[in-house]
Amino acid sequence: MKKLTLIAFLGLSTFAFSQDVKNSPDKGKQKTALIVPTEQKELDAKKKAAEEKAKLPKPYNPKADAQADIKKLVAQAKKEGKNIMIQAGGNWCIWCLRFNNFVQESPDLKGIVDKNFLYYHLNFSPDNKNEKVFAQYDNPGEKYGYPVFIVLDQNGKMIKVQQSDVFEEGKGYSSEKVKEFFNTWKPKG
User: Fold this and answer.
1) Which listed site, 114, 141, 182, 185, has its alpha carbon 20 to 30 Å from 154?
2) 167: which residues sit within 8 A by CB, 6+ positions away?
């Protein structure tokens, strides 16, 4: 008898619940109302990002011989007593372009970079993935995404790989965090 009462109660509860959902006139409208603005917001955000990307300088050269370029930078770094800062990414990457522009437009950061580093934009794109070059540095883009930074000493030895998300602040970068990074990895002495 207890089983029969329990089954009857569960059956009636299920029926009552299903009726309540079906009879609620605005349930369907709420779903539609939530989906449309979200999709529109995403489209607006993508459009805005595309407009921003179009305006930013494109420092990555897919046609460059990165291996040869880095070899030349090592020779130059020895002469000038500088380290090499490799910013890996591509012109397709909004955060890569933002970082480049952020450093170039900030006199403090640009001054630290120009005094202490030879700066190189290592391309990663469908046109040129620079697989051999990235393999020498343990493929940091696969681990951390882009941009990713590879710091070499004057002799071309890798001394630091740094993911970029730790520098992010809103839709840009933290000046203090980036400055600290550059100052930490500039040549000693």
Assistant:
1) 141
2) 99, 173, 174, 177, 178, 181
